[in-house]
Every structure is written in structure tokens, then in C-alpha cells.
Design brief:
Blueprint: H1 4-19, H2 21-30, H3 43-47, H4 50-67, H5 73-89, H6 107-117, H7 121-136, H8 140-145, H9 147-161, H10 171-190, E1 195-198, E2 201-204, H11 225-241, H12 248-253, H13 255-263, E3 269-273, H14 283-287, H15 292-298, H16 311-315, E4 321-325
Antiparallel strand pairs: 1-2, 3-4
Helix pairs in contact: 1-4, 1-5, 5-9, 6-7
The structure holds iron/sulfur cluster (2 copies).
Length: about 325
Amino acid sequence: MITKRIKSVGVLLTVACLSSLPVMAFAQERTGGGRGQQAAPDFIQVLLRPKFITMLVIAGLVLVLLLTRKMNNKLKVPILLLSTFLYGISANLGLKLFAGFSMHPSPICAATKSILYGFRIPMIVTLAVILFLTLVGPKLFCGWVCPVGAIQELIAMLADKAKIKRKKLNFRLTQSIRVLIFIAFIFLSLTATLHTVSNGQVVALSLYDYINAFHGYEMSLQPTFVDNVVHFLPFVLTLIFAFVTYRPFCYIICPIGLITNVVEQIALFRVVKKKDACTDCQDCVSKSPCPTTAEILKESVLKPDCFSCTVCTRSCSLDLLRFGLKNK
Ligand code: SF4
Ligand code: SF4
């Protein structure tokens, strides 16, 4: 049954997407509407593509719902399904309607391929949107519009519904693995230890190409069995492990998870604790899927990733945790 709240989020998203149409039309005008020879698009033209405009609109709407304490599971599910569809699946359908939603460059490629082969406009825009949404916070890109993040969040909710007990991983351990993978990428890829030879030239390869769950959303078969394993296995493993631990790919592998964890420490909006009234019952900590809530209670300076899942803010019976401005 469609609930009143799902209807209202549907209406809000429709209004949001419709209101972005004039901006997209303006963008199309700027790019010549697909007619004739086109110059390489500039920053603004890429930013005005439907993919980025809708990402910003959805994230803005989510922020309002978080700050006004209106976000709940009945709103979360359609928003996360929409992000999974728009930014992961839709480009595979080959429909003109979704031509502006290509996943490329994926967030991981935008960060790592830029380091390897130089910064190009679509990569710069992807990184700018990710960093902007992380700076506004609370991790609005990873939490709500990343298709790999969204599907892991949906699986976490499904696992809760099925009463599957998930294991909370130690953040020091997951952070160490995430950092080590990044260091290995710098060493193996930047030194071209990992490489291929094309037309007699040595071309460095990205270590992340072998562990990139985003590739799972490119639903075309690869030439060989090994290629298919490299292409789909990280995504399949991510989906399986998401049933037993919270967002395994984000916490353990993703370089964007690592970068945004650094940036989120200075984000404008985050989960904040009302000072002094906390009875230290630890209810929110035990119900949270993440290692972050315990550090929020302790008011640690550096905190693990918060994906604004809303579990902790909804589990405090005294209503002491909420999304708000830093230091308020
Ligand atoms: S950490 Fe990576 S995979 Fe996870 S939500 Fe962020 S960008 Fe997506
Ligand atoms: S439980 Fe709280 S701290 Fe943990 S990810 Fe969700 S909102 Fe963030």
C-alpha cells in the first residue's frame, strides 16, 4: 500500500526534478542541443547535466528532511531506490530519457584516474559535487546519491527487517585497510608497477580497477571469463557482505569513503549531541549499524564515517541526538 509519506516524497521529488528541467534546458542550449560539431564541454555545462542537477536536488531535499526530523524508513527506501536506479541502472537501458545519467566517471574513477592520467572536466565536476555535498554534510553524497552506497544501505535495512545480526567491524581495522589499499594504489599504479603495454607504450593501470564495485552497474558482458570475474565480483561480494556488516565497500575499500571521511570532519551539518542531558544508556550505540555513534557520544575530534542513516537519531528515547549545525 502506498502510504501518505511515500506519496509526499514522490510529490517532493517530482517537484524537485521538474524544477530542475529549466536548468537542464539551459544546459542543453549552452551545449548546442546536440547539433553539429561540439567543443569539449566546460565545467558549468557538465555540472548542469541531469545526473549532477538531480543529485544536488535529491541531496538538498534529504538535508531538509534530516534537519526537520521528517526522515524515516518510509521516505528512505524510495529515495535510495531512486538513486540506485538513476545513477546505477538507468544508463544501461539505452533510453534517450536517461542519456544524461551515465555513471562515468564513477566516483572512484574520478579520484583515481585523475591522479593517474590527469584531471578532466567530468572528473573535476564529479569530485566537486562529492566534496561539496560532503562539506555541507552529513556525507550527503555517500549517504544518499551514490548508487553503490544506496544499494548497501537498502541491503542493511533488508537485513534488519529479516533480523540478520550484522557484525560491527572495528573502525581502526577498516580504516587501516582502506588507507593501505590507497597507499598500494599510489605505489603500484603511480610507479606503473601495475601496467599494460599499448602500441609499445607502458600505460599505468589503477589498482582500484580490480576491486571497483561500481563496475557491477555496467551490465554488459566482458570478453573473457576472467574479465567478467574482475568486472562483477567486487559488486557481488559487496552485496553479499552488506547483509553481514554495514557498508563493507565504503568502510574497507572505497577511496572516496576515505577522502570524504577526512572532509566530513569539518562538515557544516552532522549528528550532534545535546550536551549534559545524556544518561549514557548506550541505547543509540547498540542500535546503530556504524562505529560512529560511540565516538559522537564521546565527542571525539576525529570520527568514523557517518552516512546519515538516521538510526541513532531515531533511537534516543530522550531525543538528544539530532542532525544540526556543527557545535550547536
Ligand atoms: S564510500 Fe564510495 S561506495 Fe560508499 S557511498 Fe561513498 S562513494 Fe559510494
Ligand atoms: S547511526 Fe547515526 S552516526 Fe551512524 S551512520 Fe547512522 S546517522 Fe550516522
